[in-house]
């Protein structure tokens, strides 16, 4: 099988944002794995208008009016799995991230997605909301998530990119074992299965 392509989305565009730090950490950890090709997608580099398309994306068949949206669609189409790194804002997701999900459709279909979150209770509530959103986009959200505890957040926030990966090491030592490896194992397994299924239907 060809390499599994995993796109990591930085889900915040705020100045002094935290999300790029765990995104680069996850990127570094994935680079250690054989058979994986990974890329960071920064929403700052895709300043898409808030959804204003005349044609609903579900009916657009991959044909989008806005040039930036077209470029965004190409990047997502190229991926086999998605990792979304997101803060939790008021128990929910950033508007810019929701917009990035809403402006395209077919490119998300039948792909695995996992979440890395931070904020109140490690961002667990935003992950629950995003799981409902991505199911409507015909994605397969994995069970495991990486919820960054506040003590790791506070230490990493003071660091420059790339953050020393040892700062994130406590994330690996949960009650149920290494949640990072469990996250990767599940995401990659489902991504491989879906890639095989998609290719068999072409």
Task: Characterise the protein shown here.
The structure is a single chain. By secondary structure, the protein is an alpha/beta fold. The protein has one domain: Rossmann fold. It is built from seven helices and six strands, in the order βαβααβαβαββαα. It has helices at 20-31, 57-60, 67-77, 95-102, 124-136, 150-157, 179-200, and strands at residues 4-10, 36-42, 81-87, 112-118, 140-141, 146-148. Strands 1, 2, 3, 4, 5 and 6 form a six-stranded parallel β-sheet that branches. It is globular, with a radius of gyration of 16 Å. The model has no long low-confidence stretch (mean pLDDT 95).
Order of helices and strands: EHEHHEHEHEEHH
CATH architecture designation: 3-Layer(aba) Sandwich
Overall mean pLDDT stands at: 95
Rg value: 16 Å
Uncertain segments:
none
Q: What's the CATH topology name? A: Rossmann fold
**Gap from first CA to last CA:** 15 Å
Count of β-strands: 6
Roughly how much helix do the residues carry, as a percent range?
Answer: 25-40%
CATH superfamily: Flavodoxin domain
Assigned CATH class: Alpha Beta
Q: Provide the structure class.
A: alpha/beta
Number of helices: 7
What count of domains describes the coordinates? 1
**Strand share of the residues?**
15-25%
Described by strand count, sense and barrel closure, the largest sheet is: 6 strands, parallel
The coarse silhouette is globular
